[in-house]
Specification:
This protein has about 400 residues and is mostly helical. The protein is built from 14 helices and 2 strands.
Length: about 400
């Protein structure tokens, strides 16, 4: 509903002050949906499915960023830039109706007075595979009455919700700042905003100028290269990573280790660095547009979608009792990094030029992504070192006043 208001304001925008106000409201509207969709995967899907399901969300996220400018280019050329907001207004009004009718409230508190912090135990995937992941009758609560159609779609739920103080829920994600795997995952996921912002900010300047001289619609079409990479990377970072994890688990006598997912980071690390070189250097030397679009942007799109799914599921597997808190912290890091880089990329290019900026970004991508090798070797040891804090923070009744005691 907030974004519907944003679209109305955007269609009538006539000053930079209104634009800033609109961006603030956009952040308020987008952040809950951004977090809740990813968090819900920890409740709805089994562990061996999470990467596959998360990459569908990542496909929607990056696919929207890639295909949105394609549509916007034609809208601006044939109608007006204000119609970009009018069309979004129509889309979001339809989505609001669909949400009211079909999005059920499935939230309920799993906490009771007897809950205590549980330690992380090895997950026997083979047992679940043999049972075909079916839920037994003992796992189903029969003591709660079924709610009606409209009760499951109530705008406000207090009976089955989390009754802990809001401030405690707000601060819990930041307890994980001292967990190396979570911080690294946040950096990797946040770095993808680097490359997304790089493409969004530079495409118009690069392709509308000589030697390309693309029209507005043609500039928008260059995003198709990135979208193709995102689409392929989604299947690699999702279904393939889940498949790889199951196979490695079976070889490990049925005991799953979160680090199994990190073997798949090798290809995104190489493609990320190669995509930056192909994109930046081809622009610098005036190479054919296909080098930057069909190779550079495609490789960047692949690395963005695949590494996102890998690092998110790694963090969830590493801290299963604090999965929601871990995802929230990672999203906060991602959005802060992306926001800062969006403001920095313009002055950076102006000061350093395309060649130097490309080389610096190449090194930055390697420094951020390559530590997956260290986590493959030392990740389990780091999790053992933080086990005491993990068990302590897993206590749902933990008071913020007792965190540092």
């Amino acid at each position: 509903m907030v974004y519907i208001v944003v679209c109305i304001i955007g269609s009538q925008m006539n000053s930079i002050k209104v634009f800033y106000l609109m961006q603030i409201l956009t952040g308020i509207a987008a952040s809950p949906g951004d977090a809740l969709v990813e968090i819900s995967t920890t409740d709805v899907f089994f562990q061996h499915e999470r990467a596959s399901k998360l990459t569908w969300f990542i496909l929607a996220l990056y696919g929207g960023c890639d295909l949105g400018p394609v549509a916007a280019g034609y809208i601006v050329s044939n109608l007006s830039w204000r119609w970009c907001y009018w069309i979004q207004l129509i889309i979001f009004c339809c989505m609001l109706v669909l949400q009211i009718l079909f999005m059920e409230d499935t939230t309920f508190s799993r906490i009771d007075e007897h809950d205590t912090a549980s330690s992380e135990e090895p997950i026997l995937v083979e047992t679940a595979l043999k049972n075909n992941y079916k839920v037994s009758e003992d796992d189903v609560e029969i003591d709660r009455p079924l709610r009606t159609f409209w009760q499951r779609r109530a705008l406000w739920e207090s009976e089955y919700g989390d009754h802990r103080p809001y401030l405690a829920l707000l601060l819990r994600p930041f307890l994980l700042i001292g967990f190396p795997g979570i911080i690294w995952s946040g950096l990797v996921y946040g770095a993808q905003m680097f490359w997304l912002s790089l493409l969004a900010v530079t495409q118009s300047a690069f392709y509308s100028a000589p030697p390309y001289n693309f029209s507005e619609a043609s500039v928008g079409l260059t995003n198709v290269g990135a979208f193709v990479g995102v689409l392929i990377g989604m299947f690699y970072g999702g279904p393939f990573v889940d498949y790889l994890t199951i196979k490695l688990t079976q070889r490990n006598n049925g005991v799953m280790e979160p680090e199994f997912r990190l073997w798949a980071m090798a290809i995104p690390t190489v493609f990320n660095a190669g995509g930056l070189l192909a994109y930046g250097l081809s622009i610098y030397y005036g190479a054919h547009w296909f080098v930057s679009v069909g190779i550079g942007q495609a490789l960047l799109g692949f690395s963005m979608s695949s590494s996102g799914g890998i690092c998110l599921t790694y963090s969830v597997d590493s801290t299963p009792n604090l999965a929601k808190e871990a995802l929230v912290l990672i999203l906060v890091m991602r959005n802060l990094i992306g926001m800062g880089f969006t403001f920095a990329i313009g002055p950076w290019l102006d000061k350093c030029g395309v060649m130097e900026t490309t080389c610096l970004m190449f090194m930055l991508s390697v420094l951020i992504n390559a530590p997956f090798i260290l986590f493959l070797k030392y990740g389990k040891s780091l999790r053992i070192m933080t086990k005491a804090r993990y068990e302590r923070y897993s206590d749902p009744h933990l008071s913020m006043a007792h965190v540092f005691r």
